[in-house]
Model the fold of this input.
Amino acid sequence: MHESADEHTLMRILGNNEELAAHNREHFDELGLWAINLMSAPGAGKTRLLENILSSWTEIKPYVIEGDMVGELDAIRLRRTGAEVLQICTGRSCHLDAQMVGRVLHGDSLQGKDVVFIENVGNLVCPAEFWLGEHMRIVLLSVTEGDDKPIKYPVIFHKCDAVIFTKCDLLPYVDFNVATAASNVNALNPKARIFEISAINQQGIPDFVSWLKSRLVKYKDERRSELCASPSRPE
Ligand SMILES: Nc1nc2c(ncn2[C@@H]2O[C@H](COP(=O)(O)OP(=O)(O)O)[C@@H](O)[C@H]2O)c(=O)[nH]1
Ligand SMILES: [Mg+2]
Ligand SMILES: [Zn+2]
Ligand SMILES: [Zn+2]
Done:
C-alpha cells in the first residue's frame, strides 16, 4: 500500500495510526485484555504456534484476531482449538492497522476475554510501523529464512519484545546459525527475549508458554495498581 505514499503522506498515516492505536490500548486496558501482536514473514509458523498455545494454555479466555489479505483458512484452523476467532481480510493492504482492530474493539465480542492474540498479515516490513495498541510484540523467524534477516529487516526486530526462531527441527538441513541469528537480533534489540521452538516436536514451546504466563501475571498486577490510581473509561 505504500508505493504511492510520499514521505509526508506516510508520516500523516502513521501519526493518525498512533492516535487510533493509543485509543485501542485504552479499550484493551478497560476490558482487562492483554494483547499480543504476532508478526513474521508468510509461513514462519504463526498459526501453527497459536494452535499449540491455544490447545495447551487452557486457563485463559482467549480471543484471536486473524489478519490475512484474503480468506479464512487460518481462522478455520484456529477455531478447531475451541477459541473464538475473528478474521479481518485486509484486501490489498499488507498489514493490519489500528483502525481495523479498533472496529473489533468497539463491538462487544471481547467481553469476558483476557488475552487477545493478533496474527498480523505475513510480512516482515510494514506491520512493524503500525502499532495496533498491543502490549507485546513477538516476531517469528523460521530457520529456513536465514540468520541474516534481522540485519536486512531491522525495524521489526528492533521494535519487539521477543523473537522466536521457529522450525528448529529443520536446523540439521539448513544453513542457519542460531548464535549468529541471536547476536544479530541482540545487536538491534538487547532486551528482546529469544526462544527456539519446533511445532513438530514441541521443543521450546512449554518454556515459551511459561514465559507468556509470567508476563500475563505481570500485566494483571500492573493493571490492578493503575485501576486503583485512576479508574477512567474510554468512549
Ligand atoms: N518443520 C516444521 N514445519 C512447521 C513448523 N511450524 C510450522 N510449520 C509448517 O510451516 C507452514 C506454515 O505454517 P503456518 O503456521 O501456516 O505459518 P504462518 O503463515 O506464519 O501462519 C505449514 O506447512 C506448517 O505446518 C515447525 O516447527 N517445523
Ligand atoms: Mg497464518
Ligand atoms: Zn503494509
Ligand atoms: Zn472507543
Summary: The longest helix spans residues 7-31. Strands lie at 34-40, 62-68, 84-89, 115-119, 136-142, 162-166, 193-196. Helices lie at 7-31, 46-56, 73-79, 98-105, 149-152, 154-158, 178-188, 205-229. Residues 158 and 189 are 5 Å apart (CA to CA).
